[in-house]
Each structure stands twice: as structure tokens, then as C-alpha cells.
Design a protein that fits this description.
Elements lengths: L2 E4 L11 E5 L5 H8 L7 E5 L20 E7 L5 H5 L1 H13 L8 E4 L3 E4 L2 E12 L4 E10 L27 H22 L1 H10 L7 E5 L4 E9 L5 E5 L2 E5 L3 E3 L1
Length: 254
């Protein structure tokens, strides 16, 4: 495994943040966790190629060479519940970064952690953390973006995959990393300074199917209702025939 490391100031690169670029790794998330104890500052780890990428709930994530795979790992001053709100910071940041090449109107967010391009899934976000109840040892936020190739053979996918190239957009992984690093730094500063409210509002402004009927599939049931909002904990709020239901985790079916 070869590595290119750069922690010096570069144009548009956020101050106080490092980056590591690898030719190949099993997954950037796994690599970030392995390095967590040795990292002194927030650090981005990007790989040109992943051999064993994964998504939410341990699901396999197909990551073709040329696609974007990167993880940001740092130690926020946050409880696990507060750290989980970075799902929405990350989703917003990725949209902000993609807007450099993609018209904003074509991007939307699917709760809790997918980015859609013209209704197709173009990116996913994964959070992992470790630490005590009051303070995390580390938080890692992983990003996978289909830049040049969409996963194949996902015939049962709820949202069909799409890639930027097929949609007519050219975005190099290194350029996306620079834009995303800046957007994440700004989003984190906003969350720390002003709380979840502005982050929540920005996410809702991009939310897919807001105000429409959808189904949330949890580990034990399926709940159908009108997608009204997110609550202050980032839970999906549906208005059902029996009242409002707040859903902390699950998969959304359009």
C-alpha cells in the first residue's frame, strides 16, 4: 500500500485539517479507525480504490476505481447523540460540494444519509464512532460518491443508482475532496456555533419527498405517512392516520 500524505496549506483546504491519499485500501472507514489513535488533527483519508467498502448496517458498497471514497475522522466535543447529527451536516456539505459541477435543483437528500441526483442515488454517507457517553474518542464520517460508475446488479434497490459521468458531469475525486473538506469545516463550525436548527433547516430545504407520503421500514415494522419534518434529534416525523410518529432509524421507501 503506497501513500501520499499532505498536511500543508493548499488552496481552499481548511486550516488545521490533514489529508491522506491512498492508492488502495480495504475501506477508508476501516483505515481511519486503524489510524484513529495516531491522528492529532481532523484528517481526511481518501482512496483511489477500495477493495472492501461497506455501507449502513454492514451492507456491501460497490466502489469502482475513479469513484470517490473518503472518510473524515476527528474528535468532536459531543455526546453520541449529538455526534449523530453530523449525518445531516455531512449531507448538506456534500450537496454544497457537488454544486460546483451539478445544478443544485438536480440534487436532493433522502433520509437519513443518501444524496440523490435527478432522483437516483449518487452518494451514501456512513457514520461510526467510539467513546464514552459524554465524550467521543473519535467520530468518522465516510463518503462514497459515484463519479464515473454506478453499482451494477442492484435490481432490488429502492432508489436506482446513478453516476455523475452518465448524467453529463465531470468531477475529479481530488477536486471533490477539496470542495467537500471546506464545506464540512464550514458545516461543523455552523453546528457548533448555532446548534442543529440551521443545519436542520438547510437539510429540509433539500429533502426528497418532503410533504409527500412515504414508508419507513424499521427493524420491526413498516410505517406509512406524510413526511412532515425532522425533529430536533434528527428523527423523521411522519403524520399517520393515528398521529405523528418520530422514527429514529430505518430505510425509506418512496
Amino acid at each position: 500500500m503506497t501513500e501520499e500524505r499532505n498536511s500543508t496549506a493548499v488552496p481552499d483546504w481548511p486550516e488545521g485539517t490533514d489529508r491522506i491519499v491512498l492508492d488502495e485500501v480495504d475501506s477508508t472507514m476501516a483505515e481511519a479507525v486503524r489510524r484513529a489513535r495516531d491522528l492529532e488533527r481532523p484528517t481526511w483519508i481518501m482512496a483511489r480504490r477500495q477493495t472492501a467498502a461497506r455501507g449502513r448496517r454492514g451492507r456491501a458498497w460497490q466502489s469502482a476505481p475513479g469513484n470517490f471514497a473518503a472518510t473524515l475522522i476527528w474528535q468532536p466535543d459531543a455526546t453520541p447523540a449529538e455526534a449523530a447529527l453530523r449525518t445531516f451536516t455531512a449531507s448538506n456539505a456534500l450537496c454544497v460540494a457537488l454544486v460546483d459541477k451539478v445544478p443544485e435543483a438536480q440534487l436532493s437528500l433522502k433520509w437519513p444519509n443518501d444524496v440523490l441526483l435527478s432522483g437516483g442515488k449518487v452518494a451514501g454517507i456512513l457514520l461510526e464512532s467510539s467513546g464514552a457517553l459524554e465524550r467521543l474518542d473519535w467520530l468518522a464520517v465516510g463518503f462514497g460518491v459515484n463519479l464515473v460508475e454506478a453499482p451494477k446488479g442492484l435490481h432490488d434497490a429502492q432508489v436506482p443508482p446513478i453516476c455523475l459521468k452518465d448524467a453529463g458531469f465531470d468531477f475529479a475525486a481530488d477536486d471533490l475532496l477539496a470542495h467537500l473538506a471546506v464545506a464540512m469545516a464550514e458545516g461543523e463550525a455552523l453546528l457548533v456555533r448555532d446548534g442543529f436548527g440551521p443545519v436542520r433547516d438547510a437539510w429540509l430545504s433539500r429533502a426528497a419527498r418532503l410533504g409527500e407520503t412515504l414508508t419507513a421500514r424499521t427493524g420491526t415494522e413498516e410505517i406509512t405517512g406524510n413526511f412532515e419534518t425532522l425533529d430536533e434529534a434528527g428523527q423523521l416525523v411522519l403524520r399517520t392516520s393515528t398521529g405523528h410518529v418520530a422514527i429514529p432509524a430505518g430505510d425509506i421507501i418512496f
